[in-house]
């Protein structure tokens, strides 16, 4: 196999289609390096004393794990000094993180979920990091929270790292989706899948079924039809998978299709769904669409949503096109 490193891939993309400006290339390399560091910490587990709970809560009232905080710190420190960013925002921080004054500022803004799948950390199940890149408004070196309120269609890049049996980095710049595998001994990311494609049809779905009694009628109807299998209206059997790390569930769907759902439900109308638009839904929607899939909130395309706050939550339906279209249609009926 001819090995193409992440650096070579980025340089060649920059040269051939000028699709990746130098500053964006640096940004991606820095994020990838930070993910390598996080992967190392994850891999150490108890030996690195990184497991377990910290004694803090994040802005969303969720108890933080040690690795949530460690990963957040790694990403902040790696990205502060390079001169490629104007500001950052993280699921684990209440407000945006400006670049300290002692460093030069760049034109990009980086948003991340430093550690996705927190409930899986202590049980040695795949977890990940999700990130999204926006442009700061022209000439704006000190962006405010308002400057982050851009629809997902404005993303210039998005990606995730999954820390599983292998550590992988999946990336899009709006020109298809590529996957890199971390060569742990060499410390380099190697291109292992180009132009990933999600099959339009699927017989696999992912949803937390324990919330079924709280779902709205369109979700009840859609999932009941799947569960009815070959004796129901769909006339075929469906299989279910739920890893409870969005990164790992999306990674499976990118590789063999499927639909992933985290709907809003009847419990708390002030909290429409669990997943966060800016750190989870938008970057994953960008990746999934670039791989030929679809992503909606049940009503509209996720990437068309106009954000109104940094930690906004949205319902999420993403993956194989035909199934996302069906469950979205049930909501619109
Ligand atoms: P996070 O660990 O960043 O808070 O995200 C967890 C999310 C997502 O990764 C996953 O799909 C979902 O929460 C799991 O929810 P359940 O606990 O309902 O299974
Ligand atoms: Mn998450
Ligand atoms: Mn998280």
TrEMBL record:
* EC top class, as a word: hydrolase
Task: Report domain Fructose-1-6-bisphosphatase class I N-terminal positions.
Answer: 5-193
**Cellular component terms per the entry's GO annotation:** cytosol
| Protein's GO biological process | fructose 1,6-bisphosphate metabolic process; fructose 6-phosphate metabolic process; fructose metabolic process; gluconeogenesis; sucrose biosynthetic process
Domain of life of the native organism: Bacteria
Q: Where is the Fructose-1-6-bisphosphatase class 1 C-terminal domain?
A: 198-332
Metabolic or biological pathway, per its Swiss-Prot or TrEMBL entry? Carbohydrate biosynthesis
Keywords, alphabetical? Carbohydrate metabolism, Cytoplasm, Hydrolase, Magnesium, Metal-binding
Q: Which reaction does it catalyse?
A: beta-D-fructose 1,6-bisphosphate + H2O = beta-D-fructose 6-phosphate + phosphate
EC number of the protein: 3.1.3.11
Which locations, inside or outside the cell, does it occupy? Cytoplasm
Tell me the residue numbers annotated for binding Mg(2+) 2.
113, 116, 280
Name a GO molecular-function annotation. Answer: fructose 1,6-bisphosphate 1-phosphatase activity
What is the cofactor note? Binds 2 magnesium ions per subunit.
Task: Write out the residues that bind substrate.
Answer: 116-119, 208, 274
For the ligand (Mg(2+) 1), the binding residues are 91, 113, 115
Instruction: Describe the protein's quaternary organization and the partners it interacts with.
Output: Homotetramer.
Per the record, the similarity remark reads: Belongs to the FBPase class 1 family.
Q: Which HAMAP family match?
A: FBPase_class1
Please identify the protein, giving its name as recorded. Fructose-1,6-bisphosphatase class 1
């Amino acid at each position: 196999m001819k090995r193409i490193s992440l650096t070579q891939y980025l340089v060649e993309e920059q040269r051939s289609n000028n699709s990746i400006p130098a500053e964006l290339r640096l940004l991606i390399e820095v994020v990838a390096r930070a993910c390598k560091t996080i992967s190392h910490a994850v891999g150490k587990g108890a030996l690195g004393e990184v497991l377990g709970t910290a004694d803090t809560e994040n802005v969303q009232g969720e108890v933080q794990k040690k690795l949530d905080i460690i990963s957040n710190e790694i990403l902040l420190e790696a990205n502060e000094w390079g001169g490629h960013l104007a500001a950052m925002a993280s699921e684990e921080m209440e407000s945006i993180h400006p670049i300290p004054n002692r460093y030069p500022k760049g034109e990009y803004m980086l948003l991340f979920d430093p550690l996705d799948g927190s409930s899986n950390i202590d049980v040695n199940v795949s977890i990940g990091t999700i990130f999204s890149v926006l442009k700061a408004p022209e000439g704006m070196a000190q962006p405010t929270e308002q400057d982050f309120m851009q629809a997902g269609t404005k993303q210039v890049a998005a990606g995730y790292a999954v820390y599983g049996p292998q550590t992988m980095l999946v990336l899009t710049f709006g020109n298809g989706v590529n996957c890199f595998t971390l060569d742990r001994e060499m410390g380099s990311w190697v291109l292992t899948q180009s132009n990933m494609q999600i099959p339009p049809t699927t017989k696999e779905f992912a949803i937390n079924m324990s919330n079924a009694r709280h779902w709205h009628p369109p979700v009840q109807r859609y999932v009941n039809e799947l569960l009815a299998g070959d004796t129901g209206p769909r006339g075929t059997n469906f299989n279910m998978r739920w890893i409870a790390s969005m990164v790992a569930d999306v990674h499976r769907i990118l590789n063999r299709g499927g639909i992933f759902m985290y709907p809003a439900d009847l419990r708390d109308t002030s909290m429409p769904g669990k997943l966060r638009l800016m750190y989870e839904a938008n970057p994953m929607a960008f990746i999934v669409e670039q791989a030929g899939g679809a992503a909606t909130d049940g009503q509209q395309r996720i990437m068309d949503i106009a954000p109104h706050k940094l930690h906004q939550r949205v319902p999420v339906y993403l993956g194989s096109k035909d199934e996302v279209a069906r469950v979205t249609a049930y909501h619109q009926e």
